[in-house]
Design goal:
With 324 residues, the protein is an alpha+beta fold. The chain contains 9 helices and 12 strands. Helix 2 crosses helix 7 and helix 7 crosses helix 9. The radius of gyration is 20 Å and the shape is globular.
Length: 324
């Protein structure tokens, strides 16, 4: 394992996530895939602003945390950890549920409603961008339908998943009353059955066409298991080497403006906007890491769609070579 130094990259009240940053390389082709990815991830995380993970997770102390870490040239998955036990990660996950005893999944105190929308996207640059944009357009239409049919508010966060889809997050605080959480628990319903029933009910409505948007068949029903984990906003995906990046946050802008931007644009226009955000969030983001680790200068300032497709194609090729 490469030598490391320790630093805090995200925090609240003194910091709560430590990252072990390799002192030397890995991103230049030396060493195995896991070592290269760990070095790439460390470079990315070291550039994140203080507190960025905490911004998207309510009550981290009530969550189960999990992560992948490089050990002996392999990526190892570790779970059933508390928030203050997380360090040295390549990828970072947290539970959707909140618990009195999070590492034992006991005493459910809250549950964020998450729609996990994932699709098989084309591998070519233009096809990927166009279909990713069309997928987000469908996601926004679903959110609008949930407001109309079920009475849910606008989501708190929509983020690119880090791979081929989006996570729509409704924080427990935003939906507790609408889901009649207290009433259901007061009737003595089993909390695990409550979570499954509420989530799968929404999936069924989408699959049967009662909720429009055209992505019902793409919703992941397994998201509504009590022990389910989700990738933390800001975490890299070790397979794609892309981060989970927010494209909409309730505290950053108007839902109406975001909705219109997405629905009024073409699939390619929206897809280019999403990937430009993936490459630059927050601040320099992935662009700076690609330059430092892979020596790739990425010009995200190009205005034409055709030019940006070419930029994304270069990024895809560079990341593909790194993954081997």
């Amino acid at each position: 394992m490469v030598p490391v130094r320790s630093t805090v990259v995200s925090g609240s009240r003194g910091g709560w996530v430590k990252l072990l940053i390799p002192r030397s390389g890995g991103g230049d082709g030396r060493g195995g895939f896991a070592v290269r990815v760990a070095a790439f991830a460390a470079e990315f995380y070291s550039r994140l602003p203080e507190g960025v993970f905490r911004e998207f997770v309510r009550e981290p102390e009530r969550r189960e945390w999990a992560f992948t870490v490089e050990r002996g040239g392999d990526l190892v998955f570790v779970r059933k950890r508390r928030w203050d036990e997380v360090e040295g990660f390549v990828e970072l996950y947290h539970s959707v549920g909140r618990f009195e005893e999070p590492t034992r999944w006991e005493g459910l105190t809250g549950w964020d409603l998450v729609l996990d929308v994932d699709a098989e996207l084309p591998e070519d640059a233009e096809g990927f961008l166009r279909e990713l944009g069309e997928l987000l357009r469908g996601v926004v239409r679903v959110c609008e339908e949930l407001r109309r049919v079920v009475g849910l508010p606008a989501p708190d966060v929509i983020n690119f998943s880090g791979s081929k889809g989006f996570h729509v997050r409704y924080f427990f605080e935003s939906i507790r009353n609408r889901l009649r959480w207290g009433e259901h628990l007061g009737r003595g319903l089993d909390v695990e059955e409550l979570v499954r029933g509420l989530g799968r009910g929404l999936v069924w409505l989408a699959e049967e066409g009662f909720i429009g948007g055209g992505v019902g068949e793409l919703l992941d029903e397994s998201m509504y298991e009590l022990k389910r984990l989700i990738r933390c906003v800001g975490s890299l995906n070790a397979k794609s080497l892309l981060p989970a990046v927010p494209v909409w946050c309730k505290w950053e802008g108007s839902w109406r403006e975001f909705r219109e931007r997405v629905l009024d644009g073409s699939g390619l226009e929206v897809g280019c906007w999403v990937v430009r955000r993936v490459l630059t969030w927050p601040g320099g983001g992935l662009v700076e890491v690609l330059d430092r680790v892979l020596g790739l200068e990425v010009d995200v300032g190009v205005r034409g769609l055709e030019e940006f497709v070419g930029v994304w194609e270069e990024v895809q090729e560079a990341l593909g070579e790194m993954k081997g």
